[in-house]
Amino acid sequence: MGTITLSETNQDVIKNILGKVTNVPMLPQVVMRLLTLIGNSDHSLHEVVKIVESDAALTARILRVSNSAAFFRGNQVHSVSKAILQLGEKMVAGIAIGSCTSDVFKSPLHGYESAEGELWDHSLRTAIASREIASKFAKGVGADLAFTAGLLHDIGKAILSEFLKGSTREMAQKCDAGSYDFLQAEIEHSGTNHAAVGEVLANHWNLPIAIVEAIQHHHSPAAAGDEFRALVYAVHLGDLVAMMGGTGTGADTLAYKIDPGYEEYFTVDKDAIPELMLLVQDEFTRTKSAVFLDEGV
Ligand SMILES: [Fe+2]
Ligand SMILES: [Fe+2]
Q: Distance (Å, rounded) from C-alpha 209 to C-alpha 227?
């Protein structure tokens, strides 16, 4: 199991958090195989098709989404390969993750004073923004990988939330007073923070190392391993763009510290940010209604 050792003083709470992570159901094999494959830049469409077709429910879902109003282009899609080409691999991975983790994502984050569904909204917006930043500005960072990492970056909050319940006001006040940021507030109240808890959950799920690093370091990208740092900075900025667009996850949103170290890895054209925010909003609306509201598709 994981290595949450940020505070020596809250060992009992940390033990409880680890216990909670252990009880989170594993991701289905089909999702793991998809994530691993898509995380590897050297793969073919055929391999993605094979994995999707190995799971009847996922196959049905992918076809259903590609024939939904948001994606329908005049012809019914009956083949998985056509559907994947139409939706894009990142969307396929998003659909696969979304369909099996909705309980985790959709639970209200009481400890962050964040409503039901807000984590999912924020995560999807961060995923889209991270992907766009990766493809427009960060050369050498896989856009699909940035999407998946962005989607999962705050997953630790789903676990940590219940251990912060009742302390949120006080934490937010301290952040407002400028004494410290929300991550430090989390550590003070629980002994750990959502990035560290997310890392443990990501390891519990056996996610690829690049995604584990992005989750663990999305608030401290400089600490990521050399080969993952540009990806982690893309998610760090994607997170910020999602928040600038008005969706964070409650109380922590105002206490976000940007690390300017991204400039070493890529140059973000500041004039492109408003356009990026619009694109995120647009694609978020399209994606959310088409993919994640199960019954509405
Ligand atoms: Fe975060
Ligand atoms: Fe976030």
A: 11
pTM for this prediction: 0.82
Q: How far is the CA of 250 from the centre of ligand 2 (A)?
A: 10
CA of 257 to the centre of ligand 2 (A): 11
d(CA 273, CA 259): 17
Ligand closest to 196 (CA) is 1
Nearest ligand to the CA atom of 219: 1
C-alpha 269 to ligand 1 mean position (Å)? 24
Question: Tokens 């400028």 identify what position?
Answer: 178
Secondary structure (DSSP) of 82-129: HHHHHH-HHHHHHHHHHHHHHHHHHS-BGGGTB-TTHHHHHHHHHHHH
Taking the centre of ligand 1 as the mean of its atom positions, its distance from the CA of residue 194, in whole angstroms, is 7
Q: Which helix (H) or strand (E) holds 21?
A: helix 11-23
CB 159 within 8 A of CB 176: no
Per-residue model confidence as pLDDT tens digits over 56-91: 988 988 898 888 766 677 788 899 999 999 888 877
Classify domain 11-24+102-296 at the CATH topology level: Hypothetical protein af1432 (1.10.3210)
Q: Tell me the ligand closest to 217's alpha carbon.
A: 1
- Write out the residues surrounding ion ligand 1, Cβ under 5 A: 154
CA of 155 to the centre of ligand 2 (A): 9
| Euclidean distance between CA atoms 38 and 75, whole angstroms | 27
Range list of H helices, 218-288: 229-244, 272-287
**In the chain, domain spans:** 11-24+102-296
Cα R_g (the chain), whole angstroms: 19
- Burial (Cβ within 10 Å: 0-12, 13-18, ≥19) of residue 73: exposed
pLDDT digits (tens, 9 = 90+) for 234-267: 999 999 999 887 666 555 555 677 888 898 898 8
Distance from Cα 138 to the centre of ligand 1, integer Å: 20
